[in-house]
Design brief:
There is one protein chain. With about 140 residues, this protein is α/β, with parallel strands linked by helices. The chain contains four helices and four strands, in the order βαβααββα. The chain has helices at about 20-35, 50-60, 75-80, 115-135; strands spanning about 10-15, 40-45, 85, 100-105. The chain starts with 9 loop residues before the first strand and ends in a 9-residue tail after the last helix.
Length: about 140
């Protein structure tokens, strides 16, 4: 066996607090891509902890994010990522030429109960499935 001939794609999810949307997106991508995509998440103003309603909503999907901690957005994280998905952080996200940027307009789950977070979670899951089909087309020949 030789070193990887193809570098796996990398995705960075960024929201303001890195406590809800970006954490759920990163968890879904890690879970559904099964290691085929490098996943990062960060916040422009990270919270002290992940939103408990987001933790509960993901637990319902069989994904445990209770040990995750919000992380500060760094220039290096953006530079090291092929795709940068922003979720409401606007102009606070650094921009580098040659990167694929997507802005996902999603409701902020901050301060909401799990009932209100479920639809946000489900929308994120759908977007993650689409993203995987775009980044790993060979793994999903029926996609598209």
């Amino acid at each position: 066996m030789t070193a990887e001939t193809t570098q796996k794609p990398s995705v960075l999810f960024v929201c303001v607090h890195n406590a809800g949307r970006s954490q759920m997106a990163a968890a879904y991508l890690s879970h559904l891509a099964q290691g085929a995509i490098e996943v990062r998440s960060a916040g422009s103003q990270p919270a002290e902890q992940v939103n408990p309603a987001a933790v509960e909503a993901m637990r319902e999907e069989g994904i445990d994010i209770s040990a995750e901690q919000p992380k500060a957005l760094t220039t290096e994280a953006v530079k090291d990522s092929d795709v940068v998905v922003t979720m409401g952080c606007g102009d606070e996200c650094p921009f580098f030429a040659g990167k694929r940027y997507e802005d996902w307009v999603l409701e902020d789950p901050a301060g909401k109960g799990v009932e209100s977070v479920r639809p946000i979670r489900d929308e994120i899951k759908g977007r993650i499935q689409q993203l995987i089909s775009e980044l790993l087309p060979a793994a999903h020949p029926d996609a598209g």
